[in-house]
Amino acid sequence: MKDWTVFFVFALAGLTSSQAAGKPNILLIMADDMGYEALSANGSESYKSPNLDKLAAQGIRFTNCFANPICTPSRVKIMTGLYNVRNYVKFGLLDRGQTTFAHQLKAAGYTTCIAGKWQLGMQADSPQHFGFEQSCLWQHTRSGRSTENGKNIDRRFVNPLLEINGKEKDYVNGEYGPQVCTDFVCDFIDENREKPFLVYYPMILTHCPFDPTPDSTDWDPKRLGSTTYKGDRNDPQRHFRDMVAYADKVVGQIVAQLEKSGVRENTLLIFTGDNGTDKPIVTSWNGTKVVGRKGSMTDAGTRVPLIASWPAGIKQPGRVVDDLVEFSDLMPTLCEVTGANLPSNYPGDGSSIVPVLQDNASVRKKDWIYIWYSRSGHPDLGQVMVRNKQYSLLAKADGSDASLTRYKGPFNGEKLKDSILLEPEQAVKQQFETTLARLAKTRLLSVSNEIRIKMRKASKNKK
After folding, report:
1. Is the pLDDT reported for residue 120 higher than 80?
2. Which residue in 349, 445, 441 sits closest to 398, CA to CA?
3. 249: which strand partners?
4. 230 and 144 in contact (C-beta within 8 Å)?
5. Rounded-to-integer distance, Cα 357 and Cα 312, Å
6. What's the mean pLDDT in 398-412?
7. How far apart are the C-alpha atoms of 188 and 307, rounded to whole Å?
8. Are the C-beta atoms of 328 and 348 separated by less than 8 Å?
9. How far apart (Å, rounded) are the C-alpha atoms in residues 457 and 451?
10. 32 closest CA partner among 233, 229, 298, 278
11. Contact 144, 175 (CB under 8 A)
């Protein structure tokens, strides 16, 4: 009887291990305002990112990943897998009728968590409404700022104002917001190591204010934060360097936690950034200077890092690939990896990168990426872009004033006049214009009729 009991225990353990192998954990980390050029693995000569470089060396580094030019549009796109033209309403808000990858993975048996920056709706239940069971966030139910002696103070970094599962918590003992969020993620990983989990970590770093980190020489744990938007320490270049280093450091802490909890092997870790680097940061990159252009529909505003690391799931690790990737691709990727269903009536805006992970990219169909961008949500104030590896077409949201840019590499584009376009380039422009016109017809088709009417009325009134 004893022998049968031992056999049963080992068989059960084997079953659990087998189940774990079939259900990879997901860890999606998105830095704030960290462009492609900020990682040393991508060619940065101004900053060092050894932990991210190691992930790239042991996984896959992508050289053609594109986000929207600012945060909320990118967050809406990555979470829903839809082009902004379909469902973007306004800055700082995710329409509560939207379906996210957290919804899909939760329905597939995943326990879910989000930490970092929210800025998508101030209702106390917002993260849970969008599928996240646990949350540790800045700018959730409040602005994340305080007024002291008549001054408005940014409270995302030193002594932060956060919300833990919707409940406000003020830190005043020298805590550092990014570290609090990272510790929350690490605790969640360890507490849920026996079951498949999703962690979405939209970082607070490296967004301005450009402020000291706990590793900076001028760190002051008694400060309450910056009194200006870009930072009142007046040394943005040095502090951005320190902030990149700290972002890399906490990624290393999370990887160490995965290893300690025994789940590193079957965890797909994806690292990216929500848009280009902000002004006034200038980065030495591959022998040239890259000026931060967050908010612009340029390479410096939309080209972002992308690293995928998954010891148990990536074939031929150590590759550097130039496959086109945009944020709508994350929804189908996460669903395919986990066995979750895509949302009903998903229009196919994204293309899974799983074939790339499996070293079979030739079966993946992705010839261009598309960005619809209007910070306010009003199309008359917006721009649209279609691009492939060599060309981009930028136009107003209605398709007018379209211009083609030819790229010789990252951050090396030349705007072309129509009069000098070669015949193949004329064909590319025409194809891109056809794509813009087709997708323009989908504006707000993925939101409720009530919101659609409200938005269209607001747009007419603005005119």
Report:
1. yes
2. 441
3. none
4. no
5. 11
6. 96
7. 22
8. no
9. 10
10. 278
11. no
Name the residue type at position 39.
L
Spatial neighbors of 371 by CB under 8 A, at least 6 apart, are 66, 68, 69, 83, 84, 297, 302, 326, 384, 385
Given the structure tokens 């646990």, which residue do they identify?
Answer: 134
Residue 379 confidence (pLDDT): 87
Helix (H) or strand (E) holding 347: none
- Ramachandran area for residue 271 (φ above 0: left; ψ -120 to 50: alpha; else beta): beta
Cβ density class 361-385: b for 16+ within 10 Å, e for less: beebebebbbbbbbbebbbeebbbb
Gap between the Cα atoms of 33 and 316, Å rounded: 30
What residue type is assigned to position 450 of the chain? E
348-375 tens-digit pLDDT: 999 999 999 999 999 999 999 999 999 9
DSSP character at residue 235: -
Please determine, for residue 92, whether its predicted confidence score (pLDDT) is greater than 90.
Answer: yes
Q: What is the Cα–Cα distance from 222 to 159, expressed in whole angstroms?
A: 8
Query: 434, exposed or middle or buried, with CB in 10 Å at 0-12, 13-18, 19+?
Result: exposed
DSSP letter for each residue of 274-316: SSPPPTT-EEEETTEEEE--TTSSSHHHHEEEEEEE-TTT-SS
Of 372, 396, 335, the closest CA to residue 446 belongs to 372
What number of CA atoms fall less than 13 Å from residue 433's CA on the CB side? 12
The enclosing H or E element of 323 equals strand 319-326
pLDDT one-digit tens code per residue, 193-235? 999 999 999 999 999 999 999 999 999 999 999 999 999 999 9
What is the rounded CA–CA span in Å between residue 103 and residue 79?
10
* Residue type (1 letter), 197: F
Instruction: List for the chain the helix, strand, coil content (%; round to 5).
Output: 35, 25, 40
A 10 A CB-CB count for 348 gives 10
Question: Token pair of 104, please?
Answer: 């899909």
Residues in the chain: 463
Confidence label for 21 from pLDDT (cuts 50, 70 and 90): low
Mean pLDDT over each residue of the chain, to the nearest integer:
94
CB 146 within 8 A of CB 161: yes
Place of tokens 């007046």: 234
> pTM here?
0.94
pLDDT at 410: 97
For range 70-82, the mean pLDDT = 98
DSSP element (H, E) containing 212: none
Which conformational region is residue 92 in: left (phi greater than 0), alpha (psi within -120 to 50 degrees), or beta?
left
